[in-house]
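User: Reviewer 2 asked us to show a designed sequence for the structure in our supplementary figure. I'm pasting the structure tokens here. Could you produce the per-position amino acids so we can include them in the response letter?
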């Protein structure tokens, strides 16, 4: 029993420490990139005030109103009187001290828990205080940290419990080793996917921020910051999809009920036809087929198929949607007349990596096929990719009629 306890404890500690370290690093990098974006936005406005020959008060208000992030501007006289020029950003609860104002003229300053400030000193001794809020960033980081802790606790407790039970039942160390290896590989896969998908938007954000810092052109600075903001939204979409994939793979208790597959297909066909009326859509749908599953997951899986077609094929390319029943299985086939690919890898994971670049160029997160495969695997189904007779991609999804 002592050996069982020690090995179980070692597994628990290893997963906890490694997962915490990797998750903390990812969250810290995410927080740092967002704070840098706020800092660079404030710095660019200070540089614009230094370079302008116009009235600083007017320029400061214009910069705040056109900023990609909410900014508050206050006018501070040499006697300590404060006038609020714009309140599009956060409230400044108290007037900063002289030492804080001096420091804010030279380096980044945290003022309170959720504020970043900069100070522009005018020739007559009066000052302009620019402030931006970090409240939303801190809230996002707190939420991510809570989710990370819950995820780590769930995985570790599950792994530890299973290891303990296996040891106590038959005492075979190799079975526990295999279980731990599978859990570790699943964690590595998830973290590898997260690292791979988040690296590109983070690199792009860093590039735009560096460009904004290096150019004196105010219009270009605003443009670079706007592009950075779009990349942040893209990164948020990636994180949501990654969490959805993790949830599909880990959840053991999902809502299972009757799902009308033909109805879901028709709904998405009607939406695609409305968005792209010039597209020829052919259907070969048998009478309504009912399966036992979570309707949200099935709808998301089929929705991703049609979303891929809408993004990555010409608007007038034909598609063929088929639904058939084979014994106790349901077969969903979607074919398109797009450009397709030059080659079709044999395994699903290679195909997902193979098509990731096309997904991102089309405005997606690059995780659409991973979501489709994840839902199919959740119900012990399969997904096959091949060339369609229409010239593009053929996707065949096979699902059992009853949930597992």
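Assistant: Here is a per-position design you can include in the supplement:
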């Amino acid at each position: 029993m002592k050996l069982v306890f020690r090995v179980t404890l070692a597994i628990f500690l290893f997963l906890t420490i490694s997962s915490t370290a990797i998750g903390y690093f990812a969250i810290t990098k995410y927080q740092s990139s967002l704070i840098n974006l706020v800092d660079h936005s404030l710095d660019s406005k200070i540089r614009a005030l230094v370079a302008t020959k116009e009235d600083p008060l007017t320029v400061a208000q214009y910069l705040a109103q056109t900023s990609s992030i909410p900014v508050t501007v206050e006018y501070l006289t040499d006697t300590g009187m404060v006038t609020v020029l714009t309140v599009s950003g956060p409230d400044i609860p108290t007037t900063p001290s002289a030492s804080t104002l001096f420091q804010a003229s030279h380096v980044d300053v945290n003022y309170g828990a959720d504020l970043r400030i900069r100070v522009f000193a005018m020739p007559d001794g009066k000052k302009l205080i620019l402030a931006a809020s970090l409240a939303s960033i801190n809230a996002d980081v707190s939420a991510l940290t809570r989710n990370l802790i819950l995820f780590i606790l769930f995985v570790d407790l599950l792994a530890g419990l299973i290891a303990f039970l296996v040891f106590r039942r038959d005492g075979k160390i190799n079975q526990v080793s295999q279980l731990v290896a599978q859990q570790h590989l699943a964690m590595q896969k998830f973290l590898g996917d997260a690292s791979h998908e988040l690296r590109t938007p983070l690199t792009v954000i860093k590039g735009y921020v560096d460009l904004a810092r290096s150019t004196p052109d105010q219009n270009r600075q605003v443009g670079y910051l706007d592009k950075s903001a779009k990349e942040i939204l893209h990164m948020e979409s990636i994180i949501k999809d990654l969490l959805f994939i993790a949830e599909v793979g880990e959840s053991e208790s999902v809502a299972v009920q009757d799902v009308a597959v033909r109805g879901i297909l028709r709904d998405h066909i009607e939406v695609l036809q409305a968005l792209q009326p010039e597209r020829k859509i052919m259907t070969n749908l048998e009478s309504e087929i009912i399966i036992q599953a979570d309707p949200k997951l099935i709808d998301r899986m089929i929705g991703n198929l049609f979303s891929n077609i809408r993004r990555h094929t010409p608007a007038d390319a034909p598609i063929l949607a088929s639904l058939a029943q084979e014994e106790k299985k349901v077969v969903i086939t979607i074919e398109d007349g797009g450009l397709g690919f030059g080659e079709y890898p044999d395994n699903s994971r290679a195909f997902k990596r193979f098509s990731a670049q096309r997904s991102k160029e089309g405005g997606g997160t690059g995780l659409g096929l991973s979501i489709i495969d994840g839902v199919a695997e959740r119900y012990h189904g399969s997904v096959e990719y091949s060339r369609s007779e229409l010239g593009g991609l053929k996707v065949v999804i096979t699902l059992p009629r009853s949930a597992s």
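For the response letter, you might also mention the following. Residues 2-33+137-250 form one domain. The chain has ten helices and twelve strands.
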